[in-house]
Amino acid sequence: MDYANRKPKKQPKRNASKKKPAARGATRRQTESRQVPWLVIVIAIALIAAFTYGLVSINGSSNGSAQTPVVQPPPKDLLPEKPQERWQYIEELESKEVEVDVPERELGPPKLMQCGSFRQQADAERLRAQIAMVGLESQVRATTGSNGLWYRVILGPYQTKRDAERDRHKLQRAQIYGCAIWNWNLD
């Protein structure tokens, strides 16, 4: 059921002339005939008085009439001596020497990063100039492939891939994208 679009129901109009004049008189007679429950009132007053008397008697008893017993500590002869704490690990750590076995990294072939390959040498030189503005040195190498002469812009050689990645991130910050890292020989 769609509560948002429903139409409110029409309620029938009440007719003011249908009020009964006798109803007003009947309520007056009912209140006159009711008796006050005196028994309930007397019991409530007795309970309140008993509760008040209990609170007053509890309050008065804590003034010092009941004393708490004082506990005496046992004589010192019965207790053993407190042992001295001795921390051994501090002395052991000062004299220990930690040996860590770190395997040596195997250096693979040198890494070269190619940032572009162009048909025109002028395009390759333009990219080389942009790379030089970042502060890196690049080379333009002409290579002949199955589909003609290409001019490649390369950086490197790098000993590790991490070094090549560092330079690639510098180029990306300068908005030079598309550089790929390869395992190439310098031939």
Automatic annotation (TrEMBL):
Can you cite a GO biological process for this protein?
Answer: cell division
SUPFAM superfamilies, A to Z: Sporulation related repeat (SSF110997)
Q: Which domain of life is it from?
A: Bacteria
Gene Ontology MF term list: peptidoglycan binding
Against Gene3D superfamilies, the record matches this protein to: Sporulation related repeat
List residues traversing the bilayer: 36-56
Q: Which PROSITE patterns match?
A: SPOR (PS51724)
Kindly list any coiled-coil regions of this protein.
Answer: none
Which regions are flagged for Basic residues bias? Answer: 1-22
Q: Which UniProt keywords apply?
A: Cell cycle, Cell division, Membrane, Transmembrane, Transmembrane helix
Protein's UniProt keywords contain Signal: no
Residue ranges for the region (Disordered) are 1-30
The residue ranges of the SPOR domain are 105-184
Q: Which InterPro entries match?
A: Cell_div_SPOR-domain, SPOR-like_dom, SPOR-like_sf
Q: What is the protein name for this chain?
A: Cell division protein FtsN
